[in-house]
Amino acid sequence: MQRGSNMPVARRKTRLFCMMIMLNICICVLMGVTWNLRRGNRSHQKVRIPSKRFWRTQILSESFWNKEQQRLDFLYNPIINSALSDDSLVVLPDWLNDTGPLNPCDPDYRVLTQISDYNSLPQRFQDFLLHMRCRTYSMLINQPHVCDEPPFLLLVVKSLIPHFDRRQAIRETWGRAGVLANRTVVTVFLLGSTLPLDNFPDLRIMLGHEAKLHNDLLQWDYRDSFFNLTLKEVLFLEWFSKHCPQAQYVLKGDDDVFVNTLRVIDLLEGLPDNKAKDLFIGDVISNAGPHRNQKLKYFIPESVFVGQYPPYAGGGGYLLSGELAIRLYNISQQVVLFPIDDVYTGMCLRKLGLAPTKHTGFKTFDIEKKYRSAPCIYRSLVLVHSRTPQEIIEIWPWIVNPELDCQ
């Protein structure tokens, strides 16, 4: 009797429990529908750029190069780019208005006031800063058809107009164009203009004869100087993207290096696609920073740049894939020109999320003196710096002579 009297109470508790579960389910469903509707509406709304107050909290560097790079980073930010078409949604920070001359190739006289020690800097540095934004220079000598047959390996040599003997030594040895080890090899030499104010003689007639004879010179109308080597790099990458984009690999070097071209081809043969795509190898320098001593060749003042350098391959020579060369050209538009070319290339690589790989075959700081006349040493090397034209001609037979026993 007592058990039967408790049955209605148990049923009521069960019914109440079920109603609470159903109510919770309904609430969850309603919340989910509301959230999806709101998300759907937001997907059709443009992303709003943070307010002016927010941007003013950003710390703007006092060093000129860093400040210029911050400006490019802002303008190439994908979120900001997506909203720039609607000015009502974009509030630009005040410092972006300080953009310099409308024509980037006009002298940028902001540097006189924005770089505190400008007047005390070496003349070469002052010239670089005045024209740091200019990347457009007319081409004086071009070879638009040199890659009509896409090369396996493009050898790119940085040179100066008076260095006729170096270029000829390279043509007769490691830079000989044609078919080598059943692979097509093409060679080009990169030149600017040498000016009387730099104490160079007028060699234009001789250069014109050389260009017609060998069809391997690329020359632009800019002042060929140490601080313009970065410009030479960027102009080459632009040329490459237009006239030789199908080259599989590119080796860049100075005109005083020796390259074991057979070793290069052997290294590249059968390289897996996953390694070939991002290939960039050389004599890598890590944990480096700017030199502050004005007497040094690589001097960079704090008023121009602060920070550490990214890992970079010594500019004497490095090897990369043609595909990566195209990406380097594209990303270089987002990196402010820097007066040291190999550091600049490291900056572009970092912007791509990459870093150069060290290879022991690259000796841009030479090898021990006791080994420099040992023929077999050069069989295992990829590139060594530096060698005279006479030494290059002496070494090359050691590479190609099948009778030399290096076992």
From TrEMBL:
GO terms for biological process: poly-N-acetyllactosamine biosynthetic process; protein O-linked glycosylation. It is a single-pass type II membrane protein. InterPro entries: Glyco_trans_31. It catalyses: a beta-D-galactosyl-(1->4)-N-acetyl-beta-D-glucosaminyl derivative + UDP-N-acetyl-alpha-D-glucosamine = an N-acetyl-beta-D-glucosaminyl-(1->3)-beta-D-galactosyl-(1->4)-N-acetyl-beta-D-glucosaminyl derivative + UDP + H(+). The keyword Cell cycle does not apply. Its EC number is 2.4.1.-. It comes from the Eukaryota. Keywords: Glycoprotein, Glycosyltransferase, Golgi apparatus, Manganese, Membrane, Signal-anchor, Transferase, Transmembrane, Transmembrane helix. GO terms for molecular function: N-acetyllactosaminide beta-1,3-N-acetylglucosaminyltransferase activity. Its main location: Golgi. The keyword Transmembrane helix applies. GO terms for cellular component: Golgi membrane. The chain crosses the membrane at residues 16-37. Pathway: Protein modification; protein glycosylation. It is found in: Golgi apparatus membrane. Its cofactor is Mn(2+). Belongs to the glycosyltransferase 31 family. Interacts with B3GNT8; this interaction greatly increases B3GNT2 catalytic activity, independently of B3GNT8 enzymatic activity. This is Hexosyltransferase. It comes from Amphiprion ocellaris (Clown anemonefish).
